[in-house]
Each structure stands twice: as structure tokens, then as C-alpha cells.
Specification:
Elements (H helix, E strand, L loop, with lengths): L12 H16 L17 H15 L16 H13 L2
Helix pairs in contact: 1-3
Length: about 90
């Protein structure tokens, strides 16, 4: 995790999107559209998905477990934003 990661109590969808895009861009050295399938485009691997999981858990103080670990939740930035908001709402 980047030590400069912003900690959020309740995530604003626009801010989560910006944060996730910044994380992806820093890690992959390219820009991403929030709607693009990150895995189908060849941009990310399932191993990198685990880095995303750790980043989201630490940054947004959520726990991603069980059915939420489906790759479909991480295919797009938009999907990750929805996951973060849903899990924060469940707290």
C-alpha cells in the first residue's frame, strides 16, 4: 500500500473512482477508462487483482471476503467503486 493513501470513513463515489484510477495508473504506468474491462484488455492479471483487493481494504477500511472476491467485482473501476460503497454501507 502507498503510505500516502487517503483513509476514508464513508467513500464518495467520485473520490473512490479518482483514487482507484490513480492507483491503477501508478502501478501500470497508463491511464484507464472507468468502464473498460481491465482484465479483458490485457491490462491486469489475477495476481494484480489481489493487490487491488489489499489496496481497497486498507484505503477504505473494508473487508473483501467470500463471494465479494469474484473477479467480476474488479473488472472495471466502476465495479470496484460499487463494491467499496456497498461494503462500507454494510458496516
Amino acid at each position: 500500500m502507498d503510505s500516502k493513501a487517503v483513509q476514508h470513513d464513508v467513500a464518495d463515489s467520485g473520490q473512490v473512482e479518482k483514487d482507484v484510477l490513480a492507483f491503477l495508473e501508478a502501478q501500470t504506468k497508463r491511464s484507464w477508462d472507468p468502464q473498460v474491462d481491465l482484465f479483458a484488455s490485457g491490462g491486469l492479471s489475477s495476481l494484480f487483482a489481489m493487490q487491488i483487493v489489499v489496496h481497497l481494504e486498507r484505503t477504505y477500511r473494508i473487508s473483501i471476503r467470500g463471494a465479494d472476491l469474484r473477479l467480476d467485482n474488479f473488472r472495471t473501476v466502476t465495479g470496484m467503486v460499487a463494491l467499496v460503497q456497498r461494503l462500507q454501507g454494510a458496516r
